[in-house]
Amino acid sequence: MADGQTPATSGLTDPNLKRQVEEYFEMVGDAAAKHIKEECDKECNPAGPDGFDGCYKWCIIDTAPTIGVPPPPSDW
Length: 76
What we know:
The structure is a single chain. By secondary structure, this protein is mainly α. The chain has a domain at 26-68. Helix content is 54%, strand content 0%. It has three helices and no strands. It has helices at 15-28, 30-43, 51-63. The protein starts with 14 loop residues before the first helix and ends in a 13-residue tail after the last helix.
């Protein structure tokens, strides 16, 4: 990303989660981050009972292993 931001955090409202997602996506790299973002944008619109932040967080945790990248830290 030109401005140093990953595409991951556009809909997130919790600043801590936003930072964690940005750090996580930097760790897994652009290709994995793009794939996870596309999956989770689809899955979390509409967001459901956990809201967008909660849905996105669980979507990342569930999606990461399916593309062979490590899941995010367990303390999310």
